[in-house]
Structures are given as structure tokens and as C-alpha cells.
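call fold(seq) -> C-alpha cells
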Amino acid sequence: MIIEIRRYRLKPGRREEFIQFFEATNRKALRDAGMQDFGPMRDLENPDLVHWSRAFDSLEQREAVKDAFYGGPVWAEIEPIVMPMIEIFEASVVETTQGFEGFIQTSKL
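ret:
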């Protein structure tokens, strides 16, 4: 399984607004596009950080899903709302080890 671990530094004071939008709109859009998402998660040490992850079965699926999502009409509606909240974001792309898939299946995320 391929996972993107994403970290967003939001503009000061925008974290709760970002989380509310993510939970109300962005999560459904990501799942409808074929992504599994985990988060958002509040950073306990920095009030302007949010962490979240999204998962894919393979690198090929990741590229296909991302291309379709970011090239489609849903992102065109979401982008002007969410991007002004974000100061900077980082993403790491990782591959899970053998036992991880069992955790995902039993955790019911």
C-alpha cells in the first residue's frame, strides 16, 4: 500500500476552518475519487499544523486517481476555498510494510 503523509502549515488562526471544510466537503471528494483518507489530525504542539494521510493500492493507482481528481471539476471548486488557508504543505510518499494492511482492515477507518 502506498501512503502519502501530508503536513499542512495553515495561515494563523485558520486551522479549525480548514478542518471543518475538510470534514464537510473535502473528505467526500477524496473518497469519491478513490482515495482512502485518514485525518485531519490536529498537531498538539503547533496550533497552525494539520496532518492527514491518503492511501492507494499502488503507485500507478495513486497517479491515475490524482490526475483525475486534480484535473477534474471537483478540485476546481475546492481549490479556491482551501488553498488560501494553507501557508505551506509537505508530503512524503511511503510504502507500507507487510503487517500494515492488516491494521487498516481491522481499524475500520
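The domain at 2-107 is CATH 3.30.70.100 (Alpha-Beta Plaits).
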